[in-house]
């Protein structure tokens, strides 16, 4: 009987069912396989229940050519994957010599003693073929089970990511596949529907064979340009050029580039440095900047001045301004910016002060209010925004807007992008 789907996923773990852990691994697997023209046809998520796991695996093996199991390979009692696969396959569990050697080397590199709990990870179904884990202690394995190729992977995302190239090769050798050619563009400050409408208005200019896809995130939106044949690579380049024409000032980079790296590249090109004076974001802007490799070339110091006392003593914000206008005000953020630029010696900076919530708002300054000042000593400006949502969303968006408006000033792009209109405070 022919299989219904090529690839099925079985995600395991009580933490996935309880919501303590959000499943991102199935997305990683699907994206990696998609680059080989291999789709995931079915996905099941099951807690650490032996009966449910066994029944789910048997059902998937009956309907899929390949079953990828994610999770349950660790050293604890609730890690059941090896035992489950052995039972369904009708194989005994046995110590796998290569898995033991992997564990010994893993422990030796960390100065650890190989103990019984670790050795549990080498107890695998007889006849299993190892799938190398270059990072973690738990190897994966592959085994024929009831007419399906079962491949097991650890649940730790970074370990799974390191193993995906080998996994994709194994799946492709089983079900076939090919190569798709994908270019990913990172954007900020523009939505899917707006981009699609702009593209739709230029349908006659959109090259044949190029698929435009979207992946939403906070704060960025990823665009994916895909062609299925190398002969269409020039068409993909044409589509990218059209996107640059339509939304070029919103395109911040390629692949996984974040706003902070985009800003860093612009600063490096012009041999400029940056600083941040933060209140409501609590250092998030500086953290995002320094998270990127090479940030020491553009960032020397930043300032988290949460209290009024700190704003005055660290950044020389006049006490009179704080008393008259309050911490969340134009005079205060302008003074914060001036103080940060003077004390850091940076060429450009950002200052933010706002009310992240959930409390602390007033009729005049409701929760979500933020004043932002940015620029150089000679060319700077300030703006009041209203950023709705949770405290976390507020901080993420304020930090992202701050990075973007500095990027725009450095690159001499339109200083007040259209997306700012959504957040402009309008007095009632």
Entry keywords:
Alpha-Beta Plaits; globular; Molybdenum Cofactor Biosythetic Enzyme, Chain A; 22% strand
Description:
The protein starts with a strand and ends in a 17-residue tail after the last helix. The strands form 4 sheets. A 6-stranded mixed sheet has the order 2-1-3-8-7-6, with helices on both faces. Strands 14-13-15-16-17 form a 5-stranded mixed sheet, sandwiched between helices. It has 3 domains: 5-175, Molybdenum Cofactor Biosythetic Enzyme, Chain A; 181-254, Alpha-Beta Plaits; 259-422, Alpha-Beta Complex (Maf protein). The protein contains 15 helices and 17 strands. Helix 2 (25-34) runs parallel beside helix 7 (157-175), helix 10 crosses helix 11 and helix 10 packs parallel to helix 15 (391-411). The chain is globular. By secondary structure, the protein is an alpha/beta fold. The chain is 39% helix and 22% strand. The model has no long low-confidence stretch (mean pLDDT 94).
In a nutshell, what does this entry contain?
The protein has 428 residues and is an alpha/beta fold.
Count of discrete domains: 3
Please bin the fraction of helical residues.
25-40%
Strand order of the largest sheet: 2-1-3-8-7-6
Secondary-structure-derived class: alpha/beta
List low-confidence stretches: none
Helices and strands in order, then pairings?
Blueprint: E1 5-12, H1 14-18, H2 25-34, E2 40-46, H3 50-63, E3 64-70, H4 81-89, E4 93-95, H5 97-110, H6 116-119, E5 123-125, E6 129-131, E7 140-145, E8 148-153, H7 157-175, E9 181-187, H8 192-200, E10 211-216, E11 221-227, H9 233-247, E12 251-254, H10 259-269, E13 274-278, H11 284-290, E14 303-304, H12 308-315, H13 319-325, H14 330-344, E15 348-354, E16 369-375, E17 380-386, H15 391-411
Parallel strand pairs: 1-2, 1-3, 3-8, 13-14, 13-15
Antiparallel strand pairs: 4-5, 6-7, 7-8, 9-11, 9-12, 10-11, 15-16, 16-17
Helix pairs in contact: 2-7, 3-4, 10-11, 10-15
